[in-house]
Amino acid sequence: MDDFLDDNWILQKLGQNAKGKRVEFHHPFDNTWHRGTVVEVFEGSSVVSVALDDGKTKNLELGKQGLRLVSPKQDS
């Protein structure tokens, strides 16, 4: 869980520079991870919009959902 908190903190500190970062978010209902790209960071909040690889877009609140950065090595 600490890794999630660290990655959430990094994404928050990046602010608008988080756009384009590859991430995975944890879907607790079926215990799966979904990959996508940060496409929007909402100023004044801890919400990011992620374009998922399956074509859907999801708004995620940092610190409230399992969200982790994906390294370029993991993404290939």
Write the layout of secondary structure elements.
Layout: H1 2-14, E1 22-27, E2 32-41, E3 47-52, E4 57-61, E5 67-69, H2 72-75
Antiparallel strand pairs: 1-2, 1-5, 2-3, 3-4
3D structure, described in words:
The longest helix has 13 residues. A hairpin with a 5-residue loop joins strand 2 and strand 3. The protein has a single domain, classed as SH3 type barrels. The chain is built from 2 helices and 5 strands; from the N terminus they run αβββββα. The relative contact order is 0.25.
Features:
76 residues; alpha+beta; SH3 type barrels; five-stranded antiparallel sheet; 39% strand; Myosin N-terminal SH3-like domain-containing protein
Number of domains: 1
Overall helicity: 10-25%
What do the pLDDT scores average to? 86
Distance between the termini: 24 Å
Low-confidence stretches: none
Name the assembly state.
Answer: single chain
Supply the CATH architecture: Roll
Structure, briefly:
The protein is α+β, with helices and mostly antiparallel strands.
